[in-house]
Amino acid sequence: MPEPFELPLVPSQRAERSDAARNRSAILCAAERMLRECGPDGITMDGLACAAGVGKGTLFRRFGDRAGLFHALLDETERRLQEGFIRGPAPLGPGAPPAERLIAFGHALLSLTEERGELLLAAEPLDTELRYRSSVYGAYKAHVSSLLAELAPDDDEYLAEALLAALRPGLVLHQLRSGRSLEQLHESWRRLVRRLVG
Predict the structure, then answer these.
(1) Which of 20, 123, 144, 181 is the least buried, fewest Cβ under 10 Å from its Cβ?
(2) Does residue 136 fall inside a structural domain?
């Protein structure tokens, strides 16, 4: 069954000059390396410029600040997840019952947070309003809302936002650090969805 409304994707990057593309690739490769070695807190713009072999001005012009850099590191990951639930195979993508798709979406986001949680947390805007107005959050909310609309047409968007709150990186990382396994979180999410939608 097609989605009842259009889901926003992470905005595409503009076409780049070859030198700009090389610089961007060098910066992102160096940032990924630094991320593995010392985590998001260990990445400084000075250190990254040096590691990537670019000027600090190039780095700031390209990404603006650390949050912009972290968003760029997450861009491809976010794009793959969104492509998965919009056009990918079931149960994450179309073709499965809405409750199964909702469970699969939560499982995918939980797995992403286990893999990239520190980066997701570092990329969150400090301003709560900006966080909830981001294109990524908008895509997630539209997707969850559309699935809930198939399950319970009278529900408003509050339930979608309440479900997304259970998948916030800070909460998921807290649960993982408290000793819960990813498999336990998957099972908890499945039970939550089943209790809400039957």
Answers:
(1) 181
(2) yes
Task: Report CA-CA distances (Å) from 165 to 107, 132, 140, 161.
Answer: 14, 11, 11, 6
Angstrom CA distances, 28 to 18, 21, 64, 119, 136, stand at: 15, 11, 14, 13, 20
- Any idea what the Cα angle at residue 39 is, between residues 34 and 42, rounded to 5°? 70
State the Cα–Cα distance between residues 157 and 132, nearest whole angstrom.
13
CB–CB of 163/88 below 8 Å?
no
For residue 58, the domain's CATH number is: 1.10.10
pLDDT in tens, 75-108: 888 999 999 999 999 999 999 999 999 999 999 9
> In terms of Cα–Cα distance, which of 177, 147, 130 is closest to 4?
147
How many domains, the chain?
Answer: 2
Reported as a single tens digit per residue, the pLDDT across 138-197 is 999 999 999 999 998 777 789 999 999 999 999 999 999 999 999 999 999 999 999 988
Q: Which residues span the domain enclosing 175? A: 65-197
What pTM was estimated for this model as a whole? Answer: 0.80
- Lookup result for tokens 């990537």: 52
Same structural domain, 116 and 57: no
Q: How far apart are CA 30 and CA 36, in angstroms?
A: 10
